[in-house]
Protein 1
Amino acid sequence: MKTTMMASGTAFLKAVEAQYPEEERLFDDPFSELLLSGAFKLMINFMKRRKGLDYMVRVREKSTPGVLGGILCRNRYFDDVVAAAIEEGFDTLVNLGAGYDTRALRLQDIQSLKVFEIDHPDVIQEKKRRMDQAGLKVPANLTLVSVDFDRQDLKTELEKAGYSLKDRTLFIMEGVTQYIARASFEDTLRYAALAAAGSQISFTYVIQDVFDYPEKYPEHKQLLKQFKMFKLTNLTGYSQEEMRGYLKGFGLELQEDVGADYFKTNYLKPKKRELSLMRIERVVLAEVL
């Protein structure tokens, strides 16, 4: 249940972005809204009018400043990374912890990639149900892969589904690494590093500093409380300063490690959007050596 709720919550924030006029949007996603139900759908209906949209964004910004902006901007970043992979002639996209992601439905020319979306069996089953309910067909190039990481091996399940490490692959992990054990993430890095030369992995991470010294981040006090409320107490953080050397140990070369400043300059300012941004989450792009 917790996994499907988290998938719904992220889809909801992406659906919020779709309510803005085209010229203000950070990305176009007409599909996330179709995968919502219950209270999330009611809230989106309320936001169809600009006053409702602005009100709900203000409430969100006040309660958990930077979270909405951070999630929307990181989504745009991953869109850009996938678009670049398509342009460069990659073979495959592997989306780890995909939730109710819609890139396989909406990104231009993504049909040129084989796409594998991996998540918990509950999430995959519910996504299929919601897509069917919304009249959305699973594209021919998309394979949904159920993996219970407590009982199943990612490599085995992916290869059973038809994935080959010989493919030049882009692996993405959006909003995942803080929720899994360091050992599990490192297994994923080792596996990604076995892919064809020039393959890439892009992932978000939360900086360890916020867990060691939460008092330095008073704006995220409520967010940290919410983690405890949902019993997300064993969260994993990583060091920005050590990231390059850390990845090199797995045969990966850091290409980018970006955060709030990058998002503000490249995404918010061109659209004249005023959103606060999280200081505690960053996004990495690394390449297989």
Protein 2
Amino acid sequence: MKGETLGAFLLALMIFSFSISLIPLSYLSYGSSGEIVRLGKNDVEVHMDFGILELSETNESEPYALIRGSVSSKEGKVEGSIGSVSLYIPEGWEGSVRVSVRYGIVILNGSRMGELNVKMNLGLVQGEMVALKRVLIDIGSGTVSLMLRVQEGSGVMVKLDCDRSYLRYDGGSLRGEGVEMMLWEGRPLLQVYVKANVAELNIIRMKG
């Protein structure tokens, strides 16, 4: 990573940490009960200025969210200025989740979805998920650490636009500033695009 880029990235992280420290703990506290909102069967959108989003699986038939802080929900959209959102995705759900957070963290706990689209100015995306169609992550300044599980027989196209990236997959690994390659031919085709300062991506084909 170039010295100028690293310096700017570290400065951005310092500003981010300071900004988060100014948020009243009552907004982000996991100790508060929060509010459960039903999101219907359609695609889900989350828009926040500052916040934490966590995605997990549920045995419910439709997506729902537990929201805390200055956050509200309307017609399948969760919107707010400062808060935390715990989003629960049904098993086998093939919809899409679109996330727009200016400063924050997105945590993935193994949920399956058709598409994940994350846009952030500054932050972190980490965890694991089952991806079917598209994974699009665009972070102005930040880090991505992600394990993607894909269906056996699926094709996978990967593009990493980063200062530093590390890709591991069944059959090999690549390290460098950027990566663009077709890992496997097949249908359906999974498209993966990550833009961040640093990205570590591990892609695993599921059996059966």
